[in-house]
Write a structure and sequence with these properties.
The protein is of the alpha+beta class. It is built from two helices and 13 strands.
Length: 244
């Protein structure tokens, strides 16, 4: 090959060979350009990878759709919580459940305005938004430090200053802002020496909720006992919207 004054050698490691063996099979190139068949293989693989990524990224919301569906079997949002009085066993179809605590689940919907919760003492509670993203801790790891307290969950883009007119009723309350209207509230109560009765009693008598703005105190919500084989958090066949 004739060489000119400005001829520059192309490093071997940047050249595209005519054939490349991959997990997709053999990819063929001409002058560095993939053949039509090789391009199709690569595009098919990209479509598959993006579908898998979409599935992974939406799994948290799909799982909470299962929780919401199970809770709604016992009553409406904001007014119903379900409790496992005898703790979980192998029949409970929960993805991360354990057998050492008493669980209480509730679905919170803020489409009509903020929701106020009164949490019992000595619990490990949390609120997650519809994408399973953290909103706040409640109880031992929360701002009430295990003493029990009042929490106000506000919807997306809500003007928190609107709560000022309820300052007296909400004195000492902890304001929590969520990015979605639907939220999952879970309490883990700790039995003493294996006795769950006291935990169940405390949860039933001191857990309360209400919708705001309403100038009244939070009322006790319904807490039916959940059989261990209900409230399955498995994915539905359709995906939820981003702010449901």
């Amino acid at each position: 090959m004739k060489k000119y004054k400005m001829t520059t050698e192309t490093p071997e490691n940047v050249l595209i060979p005519p054939k490349v063996e991959t997990r997709l099979g053999t990819l063929e190139f001409f002058d560095g350009v993939p053949t039509a068949e090789s391009a199709r293989k690569v595009w098919d693989q990209l479509d598959f990878q993006r579908a898998v990524e979409c599935m992974i990224l939406t799994t948290p919301a799909a799982s909470l759709s299962g929780f919401r569906r199970g809770i709604r079997e016992h009553g409406p949002d904001n007014e119903t919580a379900i409790i496992w009085e005898d703790r979980l066993d192998s029949k409970g179809l929960l993805l991360t459940g354990n057998t050492t605590v008493v669980y209480l689940f509730m679905w919170l919907d803020t489409k009509n305005g903020p929701v106020v919760l009164e949490a019992p003492p000595n619990i490990l509670g949390i609120i997650d938004d519809f994408w399973f993203h953290y909103v706040t801790d409640i109880g031992n790891a929360g701002p009430d430090k295990g003493k029990g307290g009042k929490y106000v969950l506000v919807p997306p883009d809500y003007e928190v200053s609107l709560l000022d007119k309820f300052e007296a009723a909400l004195e000492g309350a902890h304001i929590c802002e969520s990015n979605t209207y639907g939220n999952w509230f879970v309490i883990r109560g700790f039995p003493v020496e294996g006795d769950s009765a006291a935990v169940v009693k405390t949860s039933r008598t001191t857990s309360r909720s209400t919708l705001w703005p309403k100038p009244r105190a939070p009322s006790q919500f319904s807490i039916p006992t959940s059989p261990t084989n209900t409230s399955t958090p498995f994915m539905p066949r359709t995906s939820p919207s981003s702010k449901r």
